[in-house]
Amino acid sequence: MNIVSFFAGAGGLDLGFEQAGFNVIWANEYDKDIWETYEKNHPNTVFDKRSIVDIPTDDVPDCDGIIGGPPCQSWSAAGAARGIQDKRGQLFYDFIRILEAKQPKFFLAENVSGMLIGKHSTALDGIKNLLKNAGTGYDLSFKMLNASDYNVPQDRKRVFFIGIRKDLNFKYEFPTETFPKITLETTISDLKETAIPALEFNNTNGERCAIPNHEYMIGGFSTMYMSRNRVRNWDEQSFTIQAGGRHAPIHPQAPKMKLVDKDVRVFVPSKEHLYRRLSVRECARIQTFPNDFTFHYKKVAAGYKMIGNAVPVNLAKFLANSIMDQLKSNEHKLSKIEKAKMNDVLG
């Protein structure tokens, strides 16, 4: 089945769908810091670099599905949470504009769990109604998932909108299957001794990295960062991988940070040398990108941003497989019904 991708980023969502057997024939991403990474890792996908607001619907190829994660910063509970009032939040409307014009069999849209906070309830209901009524209409399924339940070694809650075109006569059901938790030790322990610090001004080491992207951001830690523990043990899962390198979790080689006052923590005395941020490659592993997926950037901050904004590949693959299975099951069911009708006609 052919699909197109909007707000593709580095392509975590796209890669998961490809691994599930979908063909990503066309993708769109406006951030120039991401272009090289997407193009080199998805060489068979036609890549459009315009803003979605500038893309006429006729320029988007016909397809079986549309996927994407409209920018989430404006919905984040950790930020200003301006939601649909923010221009970035309004990009959801352009996603719906193209959905309405192309009328694929299904769509998937992903966003942060901050969409669920009370102040956004009216806007969220409005978006749901627009998705349901796009074109001839879609049966909409909506749910918050934690990636840690789907072979992803981190706590990461995100909401998913999945719609099935009404004429297909079924509603997508989120699978109830979950998987055992994957630990940091299983995921990144082999990388422990080989990470290197970024160059001055957090410039990349480039090809000097023996393992691609295995470098970590240098520099101090803000009082906000030091207000809570940022270390997970080897036998635990990671904190959420965020888009800002300065907010990257601390490597599990370090002991958990010591509480010295209300909302004030310090690195354990005499162990300070163990406290480094996870490297770009370690963050990519935790987001379940494969080792041969290389990120291209000049500043390491751009690497963290690409990875932190991505949908974890394993979660994307899990959802893509379930969509594929349900679409095929429905096609088989409709085929049996048509065959039965034909037999009745022929007597």
UniProtKB/TrEMBL annotation:
Official protein name in the record: Cytosine-specific methyltransferase
Source organism superkingdom: Bacteria
Keywords of this entry: Methyltransferase, Restriction system, S-adenosyl-L-methionine, Transferase
Catalysed reaction equations from the record: a 2'-deoxycytidine in DNA + S-adenosyl-L-methionine = a 5-methyl-2'-deoxycytidine in DNA + S-adenosyl-L-homocysteine + H(+)
Positions of the catalytic residues: 72
Species: Maribacter caenipelagi
GO molecular function terms attached to this record: DNA (cytosine-5-)-methyltransferase activity; DNA binding
EC number: 2.1.1.37
Assigned protein family: Belongs to the class I-like SAM-binding methyltransferase superfamily. C5-methyltransferase family.
Gene Ontology BP annotations: DNA restriction-modification system; methylation; negative regulation of gene expression via chromosomal CpG island methylation
InterPro entries in the record: C5-Methyltransferase, C5_DNA_meth_AS, C5_MeTfrase, C5_meth_CS, SAM-dependent_MTases_sf
